[in-house]
Every structure is written in C-alpha cells, then in structure tokens.
Amino acid sequence: MTTNSSMILLTPREMAAADAASAASGIPSFDLMLRAGQAVAAAALKYFPEALRFSVLCGPGNNGGDGYVAAQALLHAGASVAIFALGGQPQSTDALEAYHRLEVEVKPLDSYQPRAGDVVVDALFGAGLTRDVPEIVAKVIRAVREAGTPVLAVDLPSGLCGRRGISLGEAFQAVRTITFMTRKPGHLLLPGRSLCGDIEVVDIGIPDRIVRSVAGKLSENNPSLWLDHLPRSDAAAHKYRRGHLAVFSGPAAKTGAARLSAMAGLRRGAGLVTLASPADAMAVNAGSVTAVMLHEVETLEDLQAWLQTAKLASFVLGPGFGVGQMARDFATALKDRPLVLDADGITSFREDPSELFEAFASGDTHLVLTPHEGEFGRLFPDLADDEALSKPEKAVKAAERAHAAIVYKGADTVIAAPDGCAYINTNAPPWLATAGSGDVLAGMIGALLAQGMTAFEAAAAGVYLHGEAAKAAGEGMTAEDLAAHAGVLIDRAAY
Q: What InterPro entries does the record tag this protein with (predicted)?
C-alpha cells in the first residue's frame, strides 16, 4: 500500500534535502520561509489571543528566519512584539533577508526576561540541532520554565533532537508546535512527544512528489499502512481458514501469562487456539479455559511429534514459560514456522543471541521479537548502548541482524523490518502500562500471523490494535480486560 503522506516522517537530513530539491525545482526558498513564518504568526494570534506581548526568540539559521518573518507579520497585525536574537545577524541568506525587512529593533538574547502576559515564539533552533544548547540558551529556557511562560515552538522546541527525540541539555516545553510539510521523528519519540504540546503540520508549498522522493522508510504506525492485509471475515470463512495458533504455557504456578496470550489470540480472530502445556500445568489450565484447547507438550520430542501431526499456523513462546535451555530448544525447533518470541523466550538467548539469529536467518521473515527496553539490551547490547542512534535506527539494525520483525516496546513503541522499514506507534493510552499487557500483545500478533499476515504487517497491526483495545477497555483496565477487547474493530472506511 502507498504510504499516506500525512504518516511520513522526515528526518532533519531528509527535510534539508526536500528544501534543496524544492529550490532546485524553481521554488524560491525565501517564499517557503515567508509561508512558514506567516503560518507561525497566524497560529500565535489564533491560539494565544490573551498575549500582551509576543517575545520572538531567533537563532542564527533558517529557523530564526522563520521567526523574523513571524515577528514582522505579528507587528503588521497590531500585536506587541519584542525580538531577541542569538549571535547577532543571521548566517543564512534567506534569514538575513528576513532580518533586514524588520521594522523593529532586535535585542540580544541574553537580555530577555519573561514578564507577565508574554508568549514566547521559539525560533532559536529547528529539528537539525545535534549538540547541547549553549548555556545562554539553556539559561533562557530555565527562566521561561520557571516563569510558566507559554511557548509556541517553530518546527521543534529548541533543545530537542529532531532525529532522536531526546533533550540536548535543556529544551523548551511547548504548548504548541508548528512544523512544516511533515512531522519529524523527534515529534513522536519520547521524551520529545511530551515536549511538543499540540503539533500542527503546515504545508508551505514543497510538492508532495519531492517529499516522497527524499523520504526514507520511517512512518507513524497507522491502519492505512496495513489495512488491506488485515484479515476480515466473509461468508466462506471457517476456523481452519483462520489459522491455528499455539501458545506455550509455563509450569503450573506460572500459567496466567500464556492464558492471556491465548485468549487474546482467540479474540483477535485465530480460528483455533491451543495451549501447549507441560504435564503439571494441564489441570490448572483445564480449569481456566473453555474455548482455548489444550495439548500436553512436556519435552522437545513431544513438540516435534506434534509439529508432524497437527496443522499449526503460528506460535507464541515466552510469556511465563521460564528462562533456559527448553525455551531455546523449542524456539529453534520452530525456526521454519511463524513465531512470536516474547519475554522469557527472548531472555533465554541473552548469553548467545547469535544462536537465535542463525536459526531464523534463511527464508522469508517469520520471526517477531517483542522486547521491552531491558530485553532489547539482552539481545542487542551494543545497539542499546549506542546513544548516537535513535530508537527507530536501533530497531532497524536489530531487525536486520535478527532477520526478524522487531517490536521495540515502550510508550513510543517502534516496529521495524529487516528491509529498513520502521513505524513509530502513537495511539497507546498511558493505562496500557500494566502487568500482562505484553502477553496480550504477543497473542494478538500471533493470531494475525495465523491468519496469513506477514511478520512485519502482523507486528504493526498488532501494536496499533493493542492500543485501540486499551482505549476500548478504558482507564483502570486489567490485562484480562485488555484481552477481552483484543478483537476490537476499526472503521475501515476511515482509512
């Protein structure tokens, strides 16, 4: 499916390439700056009508140029405006042109002091900042924070890395952010998402063909990306066509996680779900499930015999299973089958991740790994420790290494494929952070695999639907509530 342009995320480098390609196509770059600055001024007037003064803080680059244009437009609208600049006259040609058109004095940044009724228009640095903000800027950010002065950010709150979403020393907390053409990764990754406030994307006239030509493979996770492949029921549907999901249970005292996965898989549409249970857990599982079936699997030989006789479409291994050799043996025995490896299944390979990667190295991608931060570090310690990489970059490198779809979990979950495609998920409500929610996610992804979705599509759809299930369950939900809503529907017509 063609990516919805509103879902595309451009890195700062890609955005710079779009600007350059637009200029090369004959669109004057100063015209883009005029449109950007005027959009900022319009937002300032619309969202901050109570402002007694707009204090426009301008940096030395094109972000500062947008601020100068915004300041001039605000002046012409009759607003009270004060301009404070970092480093004197700007360095870029377009920003210098905007600077020379000003009809008001520009003061040095270190002279700015927040006062009652101020609204700060932050045009100091855009998304391309890669180093810690200078102390003079950090001091202003702290003063604005302490005064409680509202901030309207231009492109991205200054001090926030547009690629990684991390604070570079200090960063403004914006009430609203106006960005141009597309959002950047830093708008969606944490803590960046929490610093941007409401985000508004303004079209300043760069053609969509140029945006698409420079875009990489990073997008916001959205049904438009995978909806055509999401299973749907029809008149000919029956349980065997909808696939048979097997979920491996842990021992008698640790069966709950697997049951959550199994129930979620059943709710998400798998035609049949079986709990593969060790002998000591058969009774407790039998007393707790109804529609989910049971099959005793005590040893690797039991599993191999079952694989030869049963028509099993996909597997979930890890929730409550236990860490150790059996988990490794079971996972590698499934090397040719669609498998969601979660929790204990992941941790079991921490001493030698290459054993897992080599087992699944050939053929189409059919392994889905669902690590949280700690588990990611166990399988990919070098990537986890590399502070120069963004979360999507880490996930993509991990997917390439493991030949797997990676679900790098968190409030800003990233789903990545070995071909470099990555989605950032944003629809998860905060109450999804509860014990057992990951077990439910594993079951949902397993069910989508059972119904024929590819590993990456199943992972992306599962993560998004997991968030929708949490919304349907409501604040205060438990993992059992979440599993009960795992079959949540989405409005196909909306996408």
A: Carbohydrate_kinase_pred_CS (IPR017953), CARKD (IPR000631), Nnr (IPR030677), Ribokinase-like (IPR029056), YjeF_N_dom (IPR004443), YjeF_N_dom_sf (IPR036652)
